[in-house]
Task: structure prediction
Amino acid sequence: MEKILIIDDEAFICENVQRILSSEGFEVLAAASGQQARDLVASEEIDLALLDLNLGTEDGIDVLKRLKEIDPELLVIIITGYGSVESAVESLKLGAFHYMKKPFKADALRLIVKLALKTQTLKREVRKLRHGDGSLPGPSPIIGKSDAFNEVVAQVREIARIPSTVLITGESGTGKELVARAIHDLSERRDGSFVAINCASIPASLLESELFGHEKGSFTGAAARKKGLFEEAHHGTIFLDEIGEMDMAMQAKLLRVLQEKTIRRVGAVKDIDIDVRVVAATNRDLLQRIAEKSFREDLFYRLNVFPIHIPPLRERTADIAALAAYFLDSFSRSFGRQFRDVSPEAERLMAQYAWPGNVRELRNVIERICIMRSGPTLLPEHLPQEIRSSGEGIAAGGVNAIAVPEGLGLEEAICSIERSLIERALKKSGGNVLQTAASLKIPRGTLRYKMDKYGL
Result:
């Protein structure tokens, strides 16, 4: 519900406007002074303000300026019975959306308010699009504009049309479940259930019952028949997260389900046909797990029909600003804050940070800022210390901070120092060659040559 603020020292005007706009389904707040208006704009998410230019001893133009300082995006309609062309022009120059003279008709008020709110909605959408296209659907849009993100989007759109099994790989926090949901939402199964389970969070002894269900009396505590998650996902999608943590015995049973398209409840004697699309995900190297004899090779190939790899955030730094802007807008609204944008310096620091926790860490950082701060701009000092320190020069500690083995000649010592500096920079960037080259202020080709030279 849109929230509108009427600022007028005449009570009957406020009551009249409240009556007219409340009947249209809007929430209408009233302020009799500039100070009350400023307090409300600072504490509430106001979509539109209607401001009388003559507030007793206060000048409405000054009130307009102060409101815009608090919320630069606030739309304001000027209402006055003492208007002039000069005051109208001045208020419009200061960012007022429209100018109305008292007395006004109810229909005219309704029309201009609806037009203003539509304009506000369009402005917010443009701001979101400027920071990222959010082109994958789901409970939270998947935001990005990097080449790596666009490749994932293309893969999702392609596989969504085909009912094949999908294996999503990537580090923790990269958004594997969101990608799985997007596959489901774009597929013909979108009207069916999307059922997710973390295979690492359930003891092996209970996982079979969770996935396939059980019959009454099949084990101690089985007081009634229970459907499993595969049955719940019939004609839909089941998402098996952390599939690499599943034990070998359960892997064999899952393999049979994928092959036969049937399940058998624990304690049952008959199979049940199922029509389920399986999407699995892992942050593990399954080929390494196969070599260690802890993951079945035949199951891997059953799951890996269509692989999608989500790169870590440090390898798609072009997405960081778009994600930060989206989370900032979302949490600012949720917590009643006034954040509107991220400063260029804060964006630079976030782009230089390695984000070991990936998108999840970025989301948590922005949420914490919105809890503690109120905006309107996210500044470098709002960021945690580990992110601020990521912007410091790679060699800030100086050459003395690097141990050089004794007995080396000058050229060998220089090579040792250079190798150490590159190692340190690679570690700080999480292995991102582009970021490392930028921090060392050398071309990427030169960095790659030196990495080959030193066996890095």
